[in-house]
Amino acid sequence: MHVVLPGDIDDPATPSGGNHYDRRVCAGLADAGWRVHEHPVPGDWPTPGPAARADLAARLAALPDGAVVLLDGLVVSVTPQELEAQADRLRLVVLVHMPRDDAAEARALAAATAAVATSEWTRRRLLDRYGLPADRVHVAVPGVDPAPPVAGTAAGTALLCVAALAPHKGHDVLLAALAAVADLPWRCACVGTLTRDPAHVRRLRRQADGSGLTGRVELLGPRTGPALAAAYAAADLLVLASRGETYGMVVTEALARGIPVLATDVGGVPEALGHAPDGVRPGLLVPPDDPAALAGALRAWLGDAGLRERLRRAARARRPALTDWSTTSTILAAVLKGAAT
């Protein structure tokens, strides 16, 4: 089978949940015995120029008739014409990380044999938005690797945000909330690429300086592998102020370590956060774009030792039920087999 990927899938300067997902399922399918042929397509996705579109079209045209092709939605949701040209002879399966809710994506998904969403929330959105047949839209939530539990500090003052510094991730809201609790002890490490929107990063730095947060908020840039694991190991609470998330892989990465989560109630985040077996959420959810609500939740976390212990206990209890990557790959393999028939 063939996989069409963004050209930057392995760029350490721009790690993303979507690229990590793609890389893990490619490895999982190969481990399961599939012959995986990767086709990274250079380009500024999802805003490709003519050369990138021509490259994608040529790669698809070169594939043999009847080939099963898994395609990252970041690439193909904006190139419906290229998919439509090959839809009659290829078995196209589109992997939708983040719905675009536009006419181009509607055409691309209509041309596909099947689509795979990375959360139940995303599947419902695709069905509602595009009227796709329900049996053509599947769900394969991201897996997570097992990790040693983090003990955390008694005071819970080590805050961690893992997200690319881009407007939709809500760092401006996070900084405003942190400024509102500046009277309390805490430090916040922000891990994520700084190059996606340099002007936005400059605005965030000015906001932090103007709010008196210099030295308390660190913009550390991207971290992967052992460096990212070390950032989690040093954290008491994951804070995610996103304006939109289809799932939130960092949520389950934190929970795998028994770290509670404070996040916005958007998209698939509640699904990723889930509940402990006793029904307790292993974290707190607040409305998006609401610095006061986020600050209130931070103040509750920092000021209530009983709350911290309840959430930590729930996070530790949530760990065994988290999906692993082999399960994700098995689900995708079943979809690909179905598309081939």
UniProtKB/TrEMBL annotation:
Domain annotation Glycosyl transferase family: ranges: 159-317
Keywords: Glycosyltransferase, Transferase
GO molecular function: glycosyltransferase activity
Domain Glycosyltransferase subfamily 4-like N-terminal: 102-146
Record InterPro entries: Glyco_trans_1 (IPR001296), Glyco_trans_4-like_N (IPR028098)
PANTHER family: D-INOSITOL 3-PHOSPHATE GLYCOSYLTRANSFERASE, GLYCOSYLTRANSFERASE
This protein's name: Glycosyl transferase
